[in-house]
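Re: the request from the purification team.
They wanted to know what the chain is likely to look like in 3D before they choose a buffer screen. I agreed to run a prediction and write the result into the notebook, where they can find it.
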Amino acid sequence: MTNPPTNSAIIWFRNDLRLRDHPALGAAIKAGLAPLPVYIHAPHEEGEWAPGAASDAWRLRSLVALDADLRQRGTRLHVFAGDSLVTLQAIATASGASAVFWNRRYDAAIEARDTRIRRELRQRGLRADGYNGSLLFEPWQVETKTGDPFRVFTPFWKAALSKWHPPRTLPAPDHLPAFQSMPGEVAIDDLRLQPSPRWDASFWNYWTPGEHGADAVLHAFASGGLQDYRDGRDRPGRSLTSRLSPHLHFGEITPWRIVEALEAGPADQRAAYVRELGWREFAHHVLHHFPHTPDTNFNPRFDDFDWADPAPAALHAWQHGRTGVPIVDAGMRELWATGWMHNRVRMIVASFLTKNLRIHWRHGARWFWDTLVDADLANNTLGWQWVAGTGVDAAPYFRVFNPVLQARKFDPQGEYIARWVRDREGMDDYPDRLMVDLADSRRDALAAFAKLKAR
């Protein structure tokens, strides 16, 4: 091993597990500093929302992919576990690094931690800087005319588009210098990210984590699904969505690279997809400005709503696709088998839980958090509060998705239901009746809402 570079910067990888379009990595190279790639496993610093099991399973494979890409360029990923600040300080001492660069995250617990770490590192004389590595618009860059955060998507997106200046895409460096091992390093496998038992085993028939996997998914979408995206994205039986959400969440690809790759596609289809990226931007905007929303209703009026006491058997039936409602059960089984669920079906299953079963949205959000490979705190929170009617720009509580009508409209040939229910279980073993009457449960939900309004 050659002597390590004397003028170096720690590149603190987090949810930015790629080498292209990486602002922190690019900043080090531009400053003439040798990048030292570091990953620190510190789930205990993420507050009440430490990553779930499906996220851990994806992260394991994404870290392995990133390490392989780094090794092709002459270096490797230096992996640690423990307190981030203490570890960064120790790495800086051992390596002689003069700077620490990272790409920002926007969860409240992480923002508070990173602010403290930046302050402490700078007090030690280190350069410590964060960059935007995941959003088209950082949460504070878009505001109302009075300087307030947005609470409704459409005016948010209109204001955001008026500031539209996506960054240029940048290639990965061809070569990176190697560094010697440092005290405290561990192997990726030592992080124990693999679920036990291996309930995630079937996921990897559908996904390839890492930057190259993200490229393959983007290419497939740009050359296929995009052509009929605007109307087809609501059809769960057809492969017309991008399926890029986990790759975006783990930073294996940036939204601006996706936008650039779709420029040659039909303008109306491209605009429809970019608008969906806008909802991701809006979710992060809301989470930053209203950090309490992962745990509490945005609309405090619903703090007094008459939620049902969640019977364990009812919640278990919903979680495992045993409700007797085919489209709901298909969605929950897709989730269990693949770690992902079609977005239209996410709305249907969420409405069934929060309206027909009248179980608090937090129970659904927690289940999604643990089982989705794209479990993103901003998106998960916005989505559940939207369907439950308790959040910003929410669907009114009295809007109750009828799962039977939804299936007829969006899965008219029954392809999706066949794939995840009928083809996987003999119908003789399927529940012979719905766990709740749809009309009665809708009426009960509306009565509970009327009671709330009368207070």
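For the purification team: The radius of gyration is 23 Å.
Please add any questions underneath this entry.
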